[in-house]
């Protein structure tokens, strides 16, 4: 905690002057000269580099400044002038660094040399790349393939991702968990069953044609700020935006475009949400049922009166399956139950349903507020059902829009990073590369953690990320992690996962995407897939952070060559020297999706991977879009019987972080300055539990499974959220989350409804 803690409600809009000021501060801190501003001119432009922050769509006709406050922060973070050298490592024992804050570790700057942990001195020591690859290869060859995990964090390019997946499969496993296992895996399980597509159906243009937006559990002001532009335009056209979120997020209330001089000078704001429904954590399933119930009732009444109702009967008859069972389930639920579970009134849900019923084309947009729950998959499917009721898919302005996280997390899955062999064209791999790809299902994130805990996983290779900090069950996981035989982290900055390490541990520093990547003297470019399945080329513009960095493809090739027997059809050196050849390989593996890849990647706005559901072609078992009926509406069957003192903890991001990367200790929009150890508590619970504003409390997990989980030292902050919910920041709260507390069907950790109790400290 900094010495300057200040809690003060923030009156400004999202964007606006606050955004401009925050950005200036970070550019100064990272010692970025004025050329930083020139660099930013290339951000998210055709022929430029794709932002390393979020995956939000990049328009074909970009604005002059096509970046947001947080995208610029992410750029500054990567192109910082600060460096960590081997001198720093020589001077600090790893054990001592463990007490450093996440912020301080990454603030040291960019990693510059490959390092190996030395047991005798407990320090990281420089090694040559050749030595590093040789030892990693020898270690991997000595292990059973099933005991090694290849994690990917979601930032690596399509080219690096394809090579990484090939490395794992040639080595002999599908152990390719990625960050989407903690994120939108609920989407990837839900939507194929519903509409036969693992990704959303919406494109950026749909925001121009829609006339209603249903917005669930995503915080665009902090986590996808460029999305505020299409939302602002929609709102100005009079499009109703109905938001479901326990928190009143500023970006969903009002916005001033910091890149519009006129708006900045006149301090004009656009309201974003037309109706704001502060649903209880995990109450969305019941809320969506409420909307469906109101819609079905209106339709029944209209049809009795001989009129057409709001339900698109023709679409349902022609395109869907399972409507009757779903409608029966909806009719069977009483308003009492729906109100209790959602925390919303019948009147407010009926009002929202009436707005939806009037709209010709509706978008359903959502983020972690839906996916990171025990019933995450069911909730996404319920939202899809709501859209299907009015035929809101496969036409302009309508569809489902999961807002993805990392800048290429969706793309990684498109080119083979997945633990599920059925999602990969193995026959193609067999034919192209003449080997028998592993058929057995691999480990996802939660299963990898289980394997580390029970000792069956022995080696962990990470293509980016900060796994140990991102996963639940921090205390048990950190202890088990130290028993791993081999840990290899391909990274740009020092983080906690380098300090918590295995017996043999390497840090392999890589180039970032914004940097110029030359191989054999030729400048390389890479490609990325955004949230709307558009593929974009990206070319680095900044000087590399050091002469001894390698690109991710080069590092993957180095490990592969040292580990795998030679295969004359897989030339790792060619791939690492010319990324266009990897794109050819991707095209050969996925001809329908990536035909003419090298030429099309520079098309302004990207090229769109074909999504059959967006053309009303249903690649499902029934051949139709399915109404999937959930088993029940309980958000969390484990804490169902419910003691009122068990609260649901929402763990989320501040406006000053990118996942485990902490840029600073302020959360401007929520009025918090100088600390991340706050606990947002509803006014009702503050009164009921006799808490005081600013009091320090501890939190324990309320699950009764024999494991004690605790995080100490939160400042109570009374806040406008529904009773029964509390909020805190990720990753500080992760020690409170049991590993088994995940979405039942996708295994996404249920980070938005952790059962906790507040432990007040005795007053002295
Ligand atoms: N600057 C920045 N950008 C980012 C990231 C970052 O950390 N920083 N992370 C990236 C990644 S990997 C991801 S996945 C995305 C994450 O972006 P988001 O999906 O916005 O993730 P969170 O901040 O975790 O919070 C989600 C929102 O859900 C709400 N919420 C919580 N519980 C519920 C619930 O039960 N129901 C509803 N309806 N709402 C709920 C919270 O109040 C919050 O507004 O952003 C990406 N972009
Ligand atoms: N409680 C709770 N836990 C959560 C969440 C939550 O909402 N609540 N959200 C979950 C979600 S949605 C996600 S996506 C995960 C995120 O989990 P991860 O993706 O594993 O974590 P990040 O914090 O994004 O990883 C940051 C590190 O990536 C490395 N890095 C940055 N850029 C590059 C690069 O270009 N190349 C390479 N090789 N490395 C790079 C840096 O060393 C940096 O320290 O966390 C999950 N955990
Ligand atoms: Mo994510």
Automatic annotation (TrEMBL):
The reply to whether Metal-binding figures as a keyword in the UniProt entry is yes
Protein keywords: 4Fe-4S, Iron, Iron-sulfur, Metal-binding, Molybdenum, Oxidoreductase
Q: Which SUPFAM superfamilies match?
A: ADC-like (SSF50692), Formate dehydrogenase/DMSO reductase, domains 1-3 (SSF53706)
Q: Which InterPro entries match?
A: Asp_de-COase-like_dom_sf (IPR009010), MopB_CT_YdeP (IPR037951), Mopterin_OxRdtase (IPR006656), Mopterin_OxRdtse_a_bac (IPR010046), Prok_molybdopt-oxidoreductase (IPR050123), YdeP_MopB (IPR041953)
Look up the record and name the cofactor or cofactors this protein needs: [4Fe-4S] cluster; Mo-bis(molybdopterin guanine dinucleotide)
Gene3D superfamilies from the UniProt entry: 3.40.50.740, Dimethylsulfoxide Reductase, domain 2
Molybdopterin oxidoreductase domain mapped to chain residues: 110-484
The entry assigns this protein to a family as follows:
Belongs to the prokaryotic molybdopterin-containing oxidoreductase family.
Q: What is this protein called?
A: Protein YdeP
Q: Please give the organism.
A: Methylobacterium iners
């Amino acid at each position: 905690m900094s010495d300057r803690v200040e809690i003060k409600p923030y009156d400004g809009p999202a964007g606006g002057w606050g955004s401009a000021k925050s950005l200036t501060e970070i550019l100064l801190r990272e010692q970025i000269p004025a050329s930083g501003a020139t660099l930013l001119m290339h951000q998210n432009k055709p022929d430029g580099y794709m932002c390393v922050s979020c995956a939000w769509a990049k328009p074909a006709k970009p604005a002059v400044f096509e970046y947001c406050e947080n995208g610029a922060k992410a750029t500054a973070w990567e192109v910082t002038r600060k460096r960590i050298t081997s001198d720093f490592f020589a001077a600090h024992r790893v054990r001592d660094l463990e007490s450093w804050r996440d912020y301080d570790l990454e603030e040291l700057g960019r990693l510059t040399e490959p390092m190996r942990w030395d047991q005798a001195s407990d320090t990281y020591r420089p090694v040559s790349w050749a030595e590093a690859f040789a030892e990693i290869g020898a270690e991997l060859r000595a292990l059973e393939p099933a005991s090694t995990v290849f994690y990917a964090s979601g930032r690596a390019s399509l080219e690096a991702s394809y090579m990484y997946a090939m490395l794992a499969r040639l080595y002999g496993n599908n152990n390719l968990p990625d960050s989407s296992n903690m994120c939108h895996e609920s989407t990837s399980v839900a939507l194929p069953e519903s509409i036969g597509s693992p990704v959303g159906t919406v494109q950026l243009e749909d925001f121009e044609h829609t006339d209603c937006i249903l917005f669930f559990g995503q915080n665009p002001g902090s986590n996808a700020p460029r999305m505020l532009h299409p939302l602002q335009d929609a709102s100005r056209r009079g499009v109703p935006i109905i938001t479901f979120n326990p928190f009143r997020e500023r970006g969903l209330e009002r916005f001033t475009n910091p890149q519009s001089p006129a708006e900045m000078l006149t301090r004009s704001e656009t309201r974003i949400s037309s109706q704001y429904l502060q649903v209880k954590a995990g109450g969305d399933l019941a809320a969506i049922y409420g909307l469906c119930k109101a819609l079905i009732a209106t339709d029944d009444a209209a049809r009795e009166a001989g009129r057409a109702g709001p339900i698109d009967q023709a679409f349902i008859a022609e395109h869907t399956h399972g409507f009757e069972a779903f409608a029966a389930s909806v009719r069977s639920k009483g308003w009492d139950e729906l109100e209790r579970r959602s925390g919303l009134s019948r009147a407010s849900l009926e009002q929202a349903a009436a707005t939806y019923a009037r709209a010709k084309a509706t978008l359903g947009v959502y983020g972690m507020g839906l996916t990171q729950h025990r019933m995450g998959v069911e909730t996404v499917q319920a939202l899809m059902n709501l859209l299907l009721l009015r035929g809101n898919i496969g036409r302009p302005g309508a569809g489902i829009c999961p807002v993805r996280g990392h800048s290429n997390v969706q793309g990684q899955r498109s080119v083979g990073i997945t633990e599920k062999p059925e999602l990969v064209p193995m026959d193609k791999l067999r034919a192209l590369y003449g080997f028998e790809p592993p058929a057995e299902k691999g480990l996802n994130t939660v299963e990898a953690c289980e394997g580390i805990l029970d000792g069956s996983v022995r080696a962990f290779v990470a293509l980016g990320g900060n796994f140990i900090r991102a996963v639940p069950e921090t205390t048990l996981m950190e202890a088990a992690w130290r028993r791993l035989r081999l840990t290899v982290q391909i990274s740009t900055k020092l983080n906690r996962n380098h300090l918590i390490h295995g017996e043999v541990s390497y840090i392999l520093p890589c180039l970032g995407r914004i940097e110029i990547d030359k191989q054999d003297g030729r400048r390389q470019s890479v490609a990325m897939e955004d949230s709307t399945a558009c593929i974009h080329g990206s070319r680095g513009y900044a000087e590399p952070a050091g002469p001894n960095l390698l690109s991710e493809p080069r590092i993957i090739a180095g490990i592969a060559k040292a580990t795998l027997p030679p295969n004359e059809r897989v030339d790792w050196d060619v791939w690492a020297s010319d990324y266009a050849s990897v794109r050819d390989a991707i095209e050969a593996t996925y001809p329908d999706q990536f035909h003419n890849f090298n030429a099309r990647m520079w098309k302004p706005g990207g090229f769109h991977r074909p999504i059959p559901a967006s053309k009303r072609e249903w690649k499902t078992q029934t051949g139709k879009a399915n109404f999937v009926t959930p088993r029940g509406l309980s958000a969390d069957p484990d804490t169902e019987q419910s003691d009122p003192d068990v609260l649901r903890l929402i763990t989320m991001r501040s406006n000053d972080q990118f996942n485990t990367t902490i840029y600073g200790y302020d959360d401007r929009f929520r009025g918090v300055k100088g600390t991340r150890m706050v606990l947002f508590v509803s006014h009702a619970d503050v009164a009921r539990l006799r808490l005081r504003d600013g009091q320090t409390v501890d939190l324990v997990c309320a699950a009764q499974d024999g494991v004690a989980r605790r995080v100490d030292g939160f400042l109570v902050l009374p806040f406008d959220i529904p009773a029964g919910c509390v909020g805190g920041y990720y990753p500080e709260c992760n020690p409170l989350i049991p590993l088994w507390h995940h979405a039942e069907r996708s295994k996404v950790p249920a980070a938005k409804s952790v059962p906790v109790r507040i432990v007040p400290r005795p007053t002295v």
